[in-house]
Amino acid sequence: MPTAHFQPRVLVVDDEPIILQTLSAVLESDGFVVRVAQDGFAGLKALHETQPDIIISDLRMPNMSGFEFLSIVRRRFPHIPVIAISGEYVTEAMPPGLLMDVFFQKGGYTQAELFATIRRLISEAPIRPHPAKADKAPLWIPRRDAGYIVAVCTECLRSFPVADESTGTEIREAECPSCETAVKYMVDSAVLKMLEQIKNRLPST
Hints:
By secondary structure, the chain is α/β, with parallel strands linked by helices. The protein has helices at residues 17-29, 40-49, 66-76, 111-124, 189-201, and strands spanning 9-13, 33-37, 54-57, 82-86, 89-90, 102-105, 139-142, 148-152, 159-163, 171-175, 182-186.
């Protein structure tokens, strides 16, 4: 539990009021000081007013998606550790530090795991190394059939959709619409099959 002399400040960004209310109550019960924001724009405003010790953000939000919000956070506030929690996307692997430090699937973690992760990330924040640039873009797969996959540009960190085509393990390229960087990515059919099994096991949202 945080000591009386140091109460970690947590910024929670989510468009669902019940999530904000529940997560705030859970965190405050363990001694954290919590501020909430209902979308990425509100999150950025909160950041410019008071910087938290850690950010917890959803990925799918109106007005400004969590991907866009976290790309700005990584560029402007790289010292702040980030936890992303989402029930809309699954991912096979995530390059540490590219957009976030930890990803939790909604319903796939315990309060104890969340508290322990927050404390660990805060304690590591002053010495957290700047992440190396990834050679391939991480891919996020929507849980609902969308016909596309979300890739994150390794240069500007913004997200954009690429075709959901699973034809093997070849390296492909797509131009980032934000910075025009040629981004390499790989759609592995075996990985997509595994992720489909994960999606089927998750509770409906």
